[in-house]
Amino acid sequence: MLFPGGFTFPNFLADVFSIFIFVLWFWLLITIFGDLFRRHDISGWAKAIWVIVLILFSYLGIFIYLITQHRGMAERQSQRAQQARDELRQVVGFSAADELEKLERLKSSNTISNDEYQRLRARLVQ
What's the rounded Cα separation, in Å, for the pair 122 and 126? Predict the structure, then answer.
């Protein structure tokens, strides 16, 4: 408890807030470690230095990593998501040609409008 006086409402709020901050810190730490160890563009020594910084200077290290590496984190996450989608399409047997054929049938049966057809077709062709 942060405040004297036993179990009071301010003590409860302070405890809830401190638990929230701890969970947030832990989640960010796991996210950063995941990104750090999946990286191929830095050496093992640089990863070790980042780990030491993240352990010794917990909150400060997390903020420094997020500020300096935010763009790279987003790009790597986007690439991993695209790779996972491509792998899923291969396993399931997804074919862009099959999906275009389905869209054609939906358009010819007037289930979807021409605008919707163009929007979905553009997304498929990407």
Answer: 7
